[in-house]
Specification:
Layout (H helix, E strand, L loop, with lengths): L9 H28 L9 H14 L1 H13 L5 H21 L8 H25 L3 H8 L5 H31 L5 H12 L4 H18 L10 H33 L5 H20 L9
Helix pairs in contact: 1-2, 1-5, 2-4, 2-5, 3-4, 4-5, 4-8, 5-9, 5-11, 7-8, 7-10, 8-10, 9-10, 9-11, 10-11
């Protein structure tokens, strides 16, 4: 290990273990999705196996999300984990009930697995970044008398988005219930709205940007003298800009999928594809920071 390389913190190691566990359980679903893309329907996982994999994920890894969500709710706040917790709960139990009742409705076990895996990936990155990012962010805060409410930013966004999603879901239930005269079955469409709205990529927005920014600070030796300079202030500004852009991208993809769910057209491929594309967009947006020139 290099002298300037810090060991992983216990929290980082904790999240990394659960991220590996979730990834291992999600790989069969990923293989199924890619097989469908190439017309290989014979690779479809048996439904009992899908139930088993998702159940282990739900109760073996999901408790981490619920713990954070309940902690936030006890303080009277809605954070990102509240919305993600709602999404994994609906996607898992909705799919489980559909399977047990043998209904001719789509299952969202694939979506459930990807949401949890990406969320744990984001938590691991956040813990991994904590020491490195804390080296330069406080310097900028102190020098400029600034406060960087990163988690407050994402939690406020998620809280407002959650309230809006619950409202749309309720209206969808009422609308479909009136239209088909079956308020019980209308819950299917209301559930689809919540599944479509779960912004798993938002978990990556802050840690991915901070990971790239920390690399930039080291690459350009911005804090080589341990004193904040004009480049550090510029790095702070571009970092906050990228975080806001990433959050916008994460929530925008899901917002665009909600009308599809409201119309009753959501299927596992659309839900899975939305999460995948939003995650790629968030990561790609962060990678653009590598082209940042501190001299400009």
């Amino acid at each position: 290990m290099r002298d300037n390389q810090k060991p992983l913190s216990p929290l980082s190691s904790f999240y990394f273990r659960y991220f590996l566990m979730a990834t291992f359980l999600t790989l069969p679903f990923l293989a199924q999705i890619f097989a469908r893309l190439f017309g290989k329907e014979v690779f479809d996982l048996p439904f009992p196996l899908q139930v088993g994999l998702s159940t282990v994920l739900q109760f073996g890894c999901g408790w981490i999300v619920y713990q954070s969500a309940f902690r936030s709710l006890r303080m009277g706040k809605l954070n990102l984990d509240c919305l993600i917790g709602l999404g994994i709960t609906i996607s898992y139990f909705y799919s489980l009930v559909v399977y047990l009742l043998n209904k001719a409705l789509p299952l969202f076990f694939e979506t459930h697995s990807l949401i949890l895996t990406l969320t744990l990936f984001g938590k691991w990155l956040e813990a991994f970044n904590e020491r490195q990012a804390s080296e330069w962010i406080p310097l900028i805060e102190t020098a400029e008398n600034l406060h960087i409410p990163l988690h407050r930013l994402i939690d406020q966004t998620a809280g407002s988005f959650t309230i809006a999603v619950l409202g749309i879901s309720l209206l969808t239930w009422l609308g479909w219930g009136w239209l088909i005269e079956d308020y019980v079955f209308a819950w299917v469409y209301a559930s689809d709205v919540i599944i479509a709205a779960c912004p798993a990529a938002a978990s990556l927005a802050i840690p991915i940007v901070l990971l790239v920014t920390t690399g930039l600070a080291e690459r350009d030796q911005i804090l080589s003298n341990k004193l904040p300079d004009i480049r550090a202030k510029a790095l702070f500004q571009v970092t906050m800009s990228k975080i806001r852009q990433s959050l916008l991208l994460a929530f925008a993809f899901n917002a665009l999928t909600i009308p599809i769910a409201v119309m009753g057209l959501l299927n596992p491929n659309i839900a899975f594809g939305t999460i995948a594309m939003s995650s790629i967009a968030v990561i790609a947006n962060a990678m653009l920071l590598y082209y940042w020139d501190p001299q400009k």
